Amino acid sequence: MPSWGALVLQYLPERAAILHRLTQHLRPGGVVAFQEYDLTTDSSLFYPPSPLWQRAWNWVTQAFQGAGAELQMGLKLYETFLEAGLPGPQMRYEAVLAGGPESPVYELCANVVRALLPVLVKLGIATEEEVEIETLEDRLRAEIVDHQGVARSPALVSAWVRKS
Fold first, then answer.
1. What's the CA gap between 97 and 149, in Å, rounded?
2. Which residue, of 19, 123, 130, 146, has the fewest CB within 10 Å?
3. Strand residues in the chain grouped as ranges (E)
4. Which residues span the domain enclosing 59?
5. Residue 88, φ and ψ in degrees, nearest 5
6. Sheet hosting strand 46-47, strand order edge to edge
7. How many domains is the chain partitioned into structurally?
8. Tens digits of residue pLDDT in 124-145
9. The whole model's pTM is what?
10. DSSP conformational letter for 87
């Protein structure tokens, strides 16, 4: 049975120690696999520049930071595997990049903001009135489509290795 986790290590304080303990229950030849976001803030999430996308991205990253998440956990998977006593993992860095009115990134972004809305309000990052969640997806779409631009999802980093 594999040891698999998604979007959990970013919230844990002693990631390598926890990963090491998890793999103690894994048979030799078993697979250890984790996926974590790279939430590094940069302007390559959209082109051309988009004020609403930048604002939404800032809401998301501030909410994750406020919840204590490690924003670069995806990029830290390699060293975490090594510190846990595992071999260097195979890795992938993936994101959805699309433009046009049918792109899934508008809905994805709006859904993430919707899920984080209580955190945004609680931490004073944004108000419900600022976010206007019911129209956010359409406004994100319009801002990209009107400028013949593209937007991408946050990058998801996957790392996996067979336990020796």
1. 10
2. 146
3. 3-6, 31-38, 46-47, 90-94, 97-99, 150-152, 155-162
4. 3-162
5. -60, 130
6. 46-47, 150-152, 97-99
7. 1
8. 999 999 999 999 999 999 999 9
9. 0.87
10. P
